[in-house]
Design a protein that fits this description.
With 424 residues, the chain is an alpha/beta fold. The chain is 37% helix and 16% strand.
Length: 424
């Protein structure tokens, strides 16, 4: 198909994320990708400032990851996980237990991040039933979060910025504390801390779990918070036998400067959700880990009634093992620190610029928040004109580049963000 034919068929038949049918604008046609660059069908090359929605941390066509996929395809592409097992899945489970916070010993492999959150919620509900407390069936979180697009995850996304209005009367009604105060290094707000603990304690009799994105709230607003609030949640949930779930789908595997964001707080949740960068951006795969106590509570009710067809897919597990191997063997902390320094320097001039409300950087995450909603088409076009792919949303123009992005390309990304902010 020619690029023009691809766009025409796409417009007629293909539904894209968060878009109507037909879409309001035509997508850019990508022909190939290598390193940190996307090559468009018209010959232009764009530095990928998004890591393909935060997943491609090693860039594209990495020889180690390519080899892992090719080798596994030569053995088997898939086999059902019910009653069978295989080396790539077992090796992945062992690696995840080794590198995640201590105490997370059991691994459930699933298809996507949203499904991983569904599994986490199911684990929490079933745990409470196993403990003889079926009345504990609600979830608590704080505002500003995002946990996926399926129904239970949607119910704990931000009630204003999420999709609650569309699904009023359908979504379960959950408990929402106020937004955590902004700022990774900001002092703890004692009044907020007390209100957060109070919100959990007042509803402890009906709560199965508390679920939050640790340190960084991603698609709900790209906000950073002090890790001390995670320690508070760990203390209050442990005191009331409420399952604490950390959704590390966006933050896991080094993005925030710690291998997992929970490490900033020095705590272990009862359940942790992983995805996105798990396979280095090659294939869809997620994992939900839990403690032995949670597993025992679930098993008291029988089985965990969940089993995706492609659970533990060998190819996905093989490339996940290779991606984790790259992190272990390489200097990911140095790479993330270098990206942070490049973004900090490149975005600093935007502080105080017309239309800019805030500029913030944490780990390999750079965010420019405007004082108005972004004109997405104009901002995207401005970034593309500067040779960079960005995906703004709401009032945010942000980047989560691959860790291997060099200093020159980091500067290019920052220039494109400035152009997008001016255009949007």
């Amino acid at each position: 198909m020619t690029p023009e034919e691809i766009v025409a068929v796409d417009r007629a038949h293909v539904w894209h994320p968060y878009a109507p049918m037909p879409a309001r604008s035509d997508p850019y046609v990508v022909e190939s990708a290598a390193g940190v660059r996307l090559r468009l069908a018209d010959g232009r090359e764009l530095v990928d400032g998004m890591s393909s929605w935060w997943a491609a941390i090693h860039g594209y066509r990495h020889p180690v990851l390519d080899a892992a996929v090719t080798d596994q395809l030569g053995r088997m592409s898939h086999v059902m996980f019910g009653g069978l097992t295989h080396g790539p899945a077992v090796e992945l489970a062992r690696s995840l237990v080794e590198i995640t916070p201590p105490g997370l010993e059991h691994v459930f492999l699933c298809d996507s991040g949203s499904v991983g959150v569904e599994v986490a919620v199911k684990m929490a509900l079933q745990y409470q039933r196993g403990r003889g407390r079926p009345e504990r069936h609600r979830l608590a979180t704080w505002r500003g979060g995002y946990h996926g697009d399926t129904f239970h995850p949607m119910s704990v996304c931000d009630p204003v910025g999420g999709m609650h209005a569309l699904w009023t009367g359908v979504l379960p009604r959950q408990i929402f504390a106020d937004l955590p105060p902004s700022g990774f290094d900001a002092p703890v707000d004692e009044a907020y801390a007390a209100s957060l603990v109070d919100a959990v304690e007042r509803h402890a009799h009906e709560l199965a779990a508390v679920i939050v994105e640790p340190v960084v709230q991603g698609a709900g607003g790209m906000r950073f918070h002090n890790p001390a609030y995670l320690r508070l949640l760990r203390e209050v949930t442990a005191a009331h036998d409420i399952v604490l779930i950390f959704d590390e789908i966006a933050t896991g595997f080094g993005r925030t400067g710690a291998l997992f964001a929970a490490g900033h707080a020095g705590v272990t949740p009862d359940v942790m959700c992983l995805g996105k960068a798990l396979t280095g951006g090659y294939l869809s795969l997620a994992a939900t880990l839990c403690t032995p106590a949670v597993a025992a509570g679930i098993s008291a009710t029988g089985v965990l009634a969940h089993g995706p067809t492609f659970m533990g897919n060998p190819v996905a597990c093989a490339v996940a093992n290779a991606s984790i191997g790259l992190l272990k063997a390489g200097n990911w902390p140095g790479e993330v620190s270098r990206v942070r320094a490049g973004l900090s320097a490149g975005l600093a001039p935007l502080r105080g610029a017309p239309g800019v409300a805030d500029v913030r950087v944490l780990g390999a995450i750079g965010v420019v928040q405007l004082d108005h909603d972004v004109d997405m088409a104009a901002a995207t076009a401005a970034a593309v004109a500067h040779g960079v792919w960005l995906r703004p949303f709401r009032d945010l123009i942000y980047t989560m580049p691959p860790y291997v992005t060099d200093d020159e390309d980091l500067a290019r990304i920052c220039t494109a963000i400035a152009a997008a902010a001016a255009a949007g």
